[in-house]
């Protein structure tokens, strides 16, 4: 047995340095497992002659006999048995790795702000799953950027500081409220507007004052209240039948559902945008489908 082990070690070393083809090893593994060149040919969708040719070439390369041939069957030699164990384990490991990679490729990991997750992504996920039922989207909300190349970091940032290739939506702001509050806007002497004072102080301010001037409302009595996330301002405006000055992106779901109304005022462009940091580095097949779907969603 020691002699066989030494001989097989020699074979393995020879395989490592010789140009043994993968099809030849696959043909050998299949024939060894099934005990038949014909059965191996059927499994591999090639001819029995091709299987025989691969194995003959492998034996010639290694200068050993792997099978004992007879008229009706083939039988592994002792060296053939050892190589069969090694190739079986090797191909099983390869199959397991491919399955793991394929399964991982179906999962899309996204990190984004809490507001974008709650108001845009999560409500729209069912539509994505309808198009791509085998995919799985894992969303983590937070303000820090994930630098993992397998994770899509969707962030809010300053437009001028981002690559144009990374930007997925430039933000516009307007005033939103319930349908009832919309009818009272012009007549009300004083109104309460909820808006955002960003937790990230490096972000440009919400353009509320510029919006008031654009719409000739700079003299209107306005009480401004702030949250550090747009999500909270929207929720509070709904609770109090008040007004919220925020991005069009985050309100599109509420608008479609008829929960919010966009006032008949001029929206204003901001210095803010949603972007995917280093987008070109994240274009796996699944991520590409998700980004393409997301960009269409944000254009609606």
UniProtKB/TrEMBL annotation:
Belongs to the LysR transcriptional regulatory family. This is LysR family transcriptional regulator. Transmembrane segments: none annotated. Gene3D superfamilies: Periplasmic binding protein-like II, Winged helix-like DNA-binding domain superfamily/Winged helix DNA-binding domain. Residues 20-77 form the HTH lysR-type domain. It comes from Vibrio diazotrophicus. It comes from the Bacteria. PANTHER family: HTH-TYPE TRANSCRIPTIONAL REGULATOR (PTHR30537), HTH-TYPE TRANSCRIPTIONAL REGULATOR TRPI (PTHR30537:SF74). It holds the Pfam family HTH_1.
């Amino acid at each position: 047995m020691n002699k066989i082990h030494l001989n097989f070690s020699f074979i393995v070393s020879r395989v490592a340095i010789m140009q043994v083809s993968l099809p030849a090893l696959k043909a050998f593994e299949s024939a060894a497992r099934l005990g038949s060149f014909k059965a191996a040919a059927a499994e591999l969708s090639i001819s029995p002659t091709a299987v025989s040719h691969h194995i003959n070439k492998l034996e010639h390369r290694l200068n050993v006999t792997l099978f004992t041939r007879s008229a009706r069957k083939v039988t592994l030699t002792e060296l053939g048995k050892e190589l069969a164990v090694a190739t079986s384990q090797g191909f099983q490991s390869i199959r397991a790795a491919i399955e793991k990679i394929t399964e991982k490729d179906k999962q899309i990991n996204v990190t984004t702000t809490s507001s974008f997750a709650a108001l845009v992504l999560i409500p729209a996920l069912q539509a994505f799953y309808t198009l791509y039922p085998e995919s799985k989207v894992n969303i983590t909300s937070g303000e820090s950027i994930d630098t993992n190349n397998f994770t899509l970091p969707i962030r809010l940032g300053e437009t001028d500081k981002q690559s144009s290739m990374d930007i997925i939506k430039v933000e516009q702001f307007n005033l939103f409220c319930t349908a009832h509050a919309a009818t009272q806007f012009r007549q009300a002497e004083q109104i309460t507007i909820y808006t955002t004072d960003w937790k990230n102080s490096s972000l440009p301010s919400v353009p509320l004052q510029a919006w008031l001037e654009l719409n000739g409302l700079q003299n209107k009595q306005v009480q401004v209240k702030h949250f550090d996330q747009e999500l909270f301002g929207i929720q509070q405006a709904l609770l109090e039948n008040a007004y919220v000055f925020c991005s069009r992106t985050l309100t599109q779901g509420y608008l479609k559902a008829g929960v919010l109304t966009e006032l008949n005022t001029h929206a204003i462009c901001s210095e803010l945008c949603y972007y995917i940091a280093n987008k070109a580095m994240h274009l796996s097949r699944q991520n590409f489908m998700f980004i393409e779907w997301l960009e269409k969603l944000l254009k609606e």
